[in-house]
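User: What would this chain look like folded?
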Amino acid sequence: MSRLAINGGEKVRTKPWHGWPVWDEREIKALEEVVRSGRWGRLYENSRVEEFEKAFAAYQDAKFGIAVTSGTAALTIALKAGGVDVGDEVIVPAYTFIATATCVLQNNAVPIFVDVEMDTINIDPAEIEKAITPRTRAIVPVHWNGRAADMDSILDIAKRHGLLVVEDACHGWGATWKDRKVGAIGDMGGVSFQASKHITAGEGGIVLTNDEELAAKCFSYHHIGRIPGRPFYEHHLIGWNFRMTEFDAAVLLVQLERLEEQTQRREDNATFLCEQLRGIDGINLLRREPYMTRISWHGFCFNYDSEGFGGVSRERFRSALNAEGIYAGSGYSHPLYKNPLFTERRFGRIAEFVDFPDYRAVHCPNSERLCHEKIYIGQACLLGTLDDMRDIVRAVEKIKDNVDEL
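Assistant: Here's the prediction, encoded as structure tokens.
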């Protein structure tokens, strides 16, 4: 191909990518109906929030859903409802978003970081087993990028050690493990509807579970300790106000109508990219296990090996890809335990009473490698056409063919 765009050559792609968020007149109509109703909170019978809870839980193969303000809130409430308390240890992956760990701290518990598998980016069950102590109370596996974690192994470990399993399914809308949607495979799970997510109201989240008692506790914790059927000003638990608004639910109900088609389109486009990029030296695709029966693909990811591109650094490769019109990110810049929150143990006075590890001594080699090798193409790109996907392939091949320019 021609000279690389980073050096002044013609770009592979000049067209804009698929926009995000996706919306039309249905969202506007739904919001207008809420405004005109005068019922803006979920404190009424037959609320849109309740309608969304039932619809999303059913879509995600769960019996119960409790809609909240964020995925962070969902995970925090789930751990609380599951009995996680002061000083308990909760095992979490080191390579994930900060909320997977801060939901533990919000319960005055102790995050214990373990490594992920390099080629799935999901928590490594062998590392979970090594990390269990008498203080361990729960495991929070992340279905990273909408790729189901190894729930067979995780559930077996949890059963043998009597541990709670709360799935971080914040990337899990429509993703399946053995044809069963993630989020309520363990005891509970949390899903996010933040602005970048596959269905969104700007913010929002939901707890999923098949356990009626846990669902009731989650409801009470998110509703300032209230219990359905009891007086409004009667409070039974120390809860939060994490209630979702009717505006959020109205938008999410419309967004949910598109989710199945969009999820399948992402799966089809990502499958095409895998087929086309497989075999290119230096592009290491993630492993797909048989139990990952559908991946929801919160972006298209691969690991970059500089040796396959003549020693060109990940950042130089990414800059070349961006210059060709393929907007690629690099994901997390460091594992969670390297955040100042953990290295300086900024946990407040609870650190005087609870024995936290020295997070400066934590070392998860795969998680650290991923911070230097990951390439990430945003999820909205996967809503494009096959021609759009071919542009991604052409750009990678062009860089490969002209690597000497870099």
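The longest strand covers residues 64-68. If you want, I can go into more detail on any region.
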